[in-house]
Structure formats: C-alpha cells, structure tokens
Amino acid sequence: MRLSVASGNARPLRVSLHADGLVGRGEAAPLEGYDGISVARVRAALTSYVPVLADDPPDPLAACALEDPLPQALAAVDLALWDLRGLREGLPVCRLLADDPLERVPVNSLGVEPGFGCVKLKLGVDVLRVRAEVGPDVLIRVDANGAWITPDKALREIEKLTLADLEYVEEPVHGVAGLAEVAVRSPVPIAMDETDEPAAGVTRVVVVKITRGGITGAWRAAEDALAAGSDVVVASTMDGEIGIAAGLHLAAALRVRRHCGLATLPSAFPAVRGFMDVPTGPGLLDGGQ
Hints:
By secondary structure, the chain is an alpha/beta fold. The chain has helices at residues 32-35, 39-54, 60-67, 71-89, 93-97, 127-134, 151-160, 176-185, 214-227, 241-254, and strands at residues 2-5, 13-19, 22-28, 104-106, 118-122, 139-143, 168-170, 190-192, 205-209, 231-235, 275-277. A hairpin with a 7-residue loop joins strand 1 (2-5) and strand 2. Helix 2 packs across helix 3 (60-67), helix 7 (151-160) runs parallel beside helix 8 and helix 9 packs parallel to helix 10.
C-alpha cells in the first residue's frame, strides 16, 4: 500500500492511496482559524504515515493513529481507504455504510436563497429581518461560534432572538459545561459544534464533520449522539470535492433529516431546491472521476 501526498500548501491537502492496482483518493481540510491546525502540521503527519502504510498493516488507520493521532490527517487516510473499498466492491460508500441510504440530502443555505428550506446565519446579521424576508416556513439557525463567552451572556442574546422562531443556536459558548448550562435554560434548542469533547446528549443537536477523523470518526460521533437522544447534522469545514462527497455519503447513510451544512462547493455539488444528490458511482466520487 503506497500513500502519496500532493505537493504545496494548498488546502484541501489531497492524498492518493495505491493498492491492488486501484487508487483511493482522500483529502485533509484543516481550517486553522477554526481548529487551530495548519496545513503544514497535517502534511508532517501524513508524511509520517508513508512508511507505516508501506508495510501493509492489517488495520491501516489504527497503525497511522499510533504514529500520529492528528484527526485531520487521519481523515485523509480514512477517506482514501473508504474510496478504495468502494472501488473494489463496485459500490458507493453510502451503500457500504447502510442498506437504505438517502438518495439526496437536505442542506441549508448560507444566506437567503430561493428554494432552500433552511438558512444558517452568523452573528452580525439582522435575524429578525431575515425572518420577515423568508416567512414562517423556512427554518433559521444561528451560529455564534462561541462568541458569547459565558452562559449568562449567551442566554441574554438568545432571548433577544426568540421572536425569530429559530430552529437552534449553534455553539453559543465553548465547552461542555457551558453548553450544558445554556441548553438547560435556553428557550431555543442548542447545537454543539467546535466543542469537540465526549459529551453525547448535552445538546439537542450535534454537528459532525469529516475533518475530525474522516467518515469513521464522524460515524462514531454520530452514533454516540444519536444513542444519547441528540439529532445529528453533517457539516463542512470548507472541504474540497472529496470531503463534501464523504459528507454526503455519511449523511445519506445516517438518513439525516435535519438540513446539513454541505452546500459550500456549488460548482461541484449544486444544491437544487435545498437538496444535494449523493454520488451513485463506486467509491466516493463516482468511480474516482
């Protein structure tokens, strides 16, 4: 098994995994302002995996994790492994994960766009104005990215938004303890995103992302959340084509009904009336195309 890593510091960082005459494709999409991990740090981890995988370990992902457990780097290898398996078996990855995956996944827009049933807004946008513009039938979710710092501050700000009839507020504060306090007292459902700690069931919604360990890591996080009674949303950290495809396969296999945050690469994966089609060819990207 041979791993090759694309040259340069472009993001996402592409990898190819060669085995049995096939090539599995993967990518790492660290977002330093979001997760604190640089492309250079991921490249170093991936480079350390090259000799590990050359020995054809029985569990390639576990062997890489022993060398360097960086989730963003492991995600690239994980995606390449799933892509390889899909190519070998002639199946899309979603059908390796589940017998009855969705054919298309509901997604949110990142602003007011016709045809979408859900809008995600960042702080600084006039949420009440957007509610008036889209009407009562479109869901609105707000992402605070932890900006409200304390539970008391978050609860005051959420109270101001209750007239907007929000679907949920994402990451009002960072940290499990703070999120738990807000979730108990908030009149609006709360979602966990950047707080990446074992805390299933703390919030109504848990956001899972491919960059945190690939499909395998995100699947485990989703299973834990669902088992604890939370809903799951699959979202992107501004992934490339491979990461978005992986997110679609994951959401389809989980049969996620809430709108996912995957409509971030419209040139490759257009959203039509608030839905994105799941690739149907072998592997992640229709047979490697």
